[in-house]
Design a protein that fits this description.
376 residues, mainly beta
Length: 376
């Protein structure tokens, strides 16, 4: 009954939009599909797919040549049973013969509220067109986001990608060094690192960048790891704003980039990345000062938890961003850009469902009490 009501709620929410489809791979779950790829194949451009939380991964799936919105329950749902929608690898691609320039089929797709190993935008050897106007919102990554426009790297340009409210757990964003990237907003994300390895652990190989804005993010991690770099490979021409770096190295592998109103604390290598690599100190940067977040002790100790309280309690980061807001993560009650809500997707949801009369005579009425919450 709970699954039926939840599905009805989702359908009502999107009644004025294109077709909404549901996917649930729980053996006893109710939905139109049990397989994510089958649901994508059956969908048309403009459709929305709601992915139920499950203990079972939905595996690999791909959006190809159609605009779809994929919505899960969130990276850490605020529910009695907080099941996430786990996906291994999700690709968003455009290919020759099935798309028409300048707007290709998968352009405009969105992925919201999943727990994923990796998402690939344009990534894959058989896909030859860049993908544009993509939103990646409120997901948890355990490998990373891969942005790889295929075909002629000198003319295929990835543009208008918005990455907001995600938790990169020993993960990051991987670019292709020979590609061109324009108009990216990477905002209000946490980049956490506790292990060494081959994953991207922040921004990697974003070289040919125009208007790539890295704004209001937080880097932190375990101080004992060997490689603490926030940037890997080579990154140039970035705009780094209002970001806090703790227990990591923000100076390596970033050059000719502008730094505005950022803060470092206990950073290895250098606490002043705006003074190295030909970077530009635009102003308002603060070196090696405690940002005084509410959960600062846990953050300093490298506790891996997206539900820590990252709000600024007081001190030098308080209201010192270039936009008059706190440095670090955004907690804006007037918009959806609020880390406090990033654990959830942007759907209304049922928080509790209580059966009031578990015993009912034949022909009787079964009563439920439902507590629902509005998404923010």
């Amino acid at each position: 009954m709970k699954n039926i009501i939840l599905s009805l709620l989702v359908f009502a929410t999107f009644a004025s939009q294109a077709t909404v489809r549901t996917v649930n791979n729980n053996p006893s779950g109710l939905a139109q599909f049990s397989n994510l790829q089958s649901c994508m194949d059956a969908s048309s451009t403009g459709d929305t797919i709601y992915l139920h939380g499950s203990t079972i991964s939905y595996g690999n799936a791909g959006i190809s040549n159609k605009k779809l919105t994929i919505i899960g329950p969130g990276m850490n749902p605020d529910k009695t049973i907080p099941l996430t929608a786990k996906v291994n690898y999700l690709s968003i691609t455009n290919s020759n013969g099935l798309s028409t320039a300048p707007v290709y089929g998968a352009d405009g797709s969105a992925v919201i509220g999943l727990e994923v190993v990796a998402i690939g935008i344009g990534e894959g050897s058989t896909y030859t067109h860049a993908v544009h106007n993509i939103k990646i919102l409120r997901n948890k990554f355990t490998y990373g986001l891969i942005v790889d426009p295929r075909g002629n790297y000198s003319t295929n340009i990835s543009s208008n990608i918005y990455v907001e409210g995600n938790y990169f757990q020993n993960a990051g964003i991987l670019f292709i060094a020979s590609s061109i990237y324009q108009n990216f907003t990477i905002e209000n994300n946490v980049f956490y690192k506790s292990v060494d390895g081959s994953n991207p652990y922040g921004m990697q190989n974003c070289i040919n960048a125009t208007n790539v804005n890295f704004n209001h993010n937080l880097f932190y991690g375990v101080s004992s790891v060997t490689n603490k770099d926030c940037f890997q490979g080579n990154n140039t021409n970035l705009n780094v704003l209002n970001t806090i770096f703790i227990n990591r190295n923000p100076a390596n592998n970033i050059t000719n980039s502008s730094f505005l109103n950022n803060l470092t604390y206990n950073c290895t290598g250098s606490n002043t990345p705006w003074l190295s690599g030909g970077n530009l100190n635009v102003g308002g940067n603060i070196a090696n000062q405690n940002p005084q977040m509410v959960s600062q002790i846990d953050i300093d100790n490298g506790v891996d938890n997206p539900l820590l309280d990252f709000t600024i309690a007081s001190g030098m980061a308080n209201n010192e961003g270039s936009d008059g807001k706190d440095m670090g993560l955004l907690f804006d009650n007037n918009t959806t850009r609020n880390w406090a809500y990033s654990r959830m997707s942007r759907l209304p949801y049922i928080n509790t469902l209580t059966l009031l009369n578990p015993s009912v005579l034949s022909g009787g009425i079964m009563n439920f009490q439902i507590n629902a919450r509005k998404a923010k």
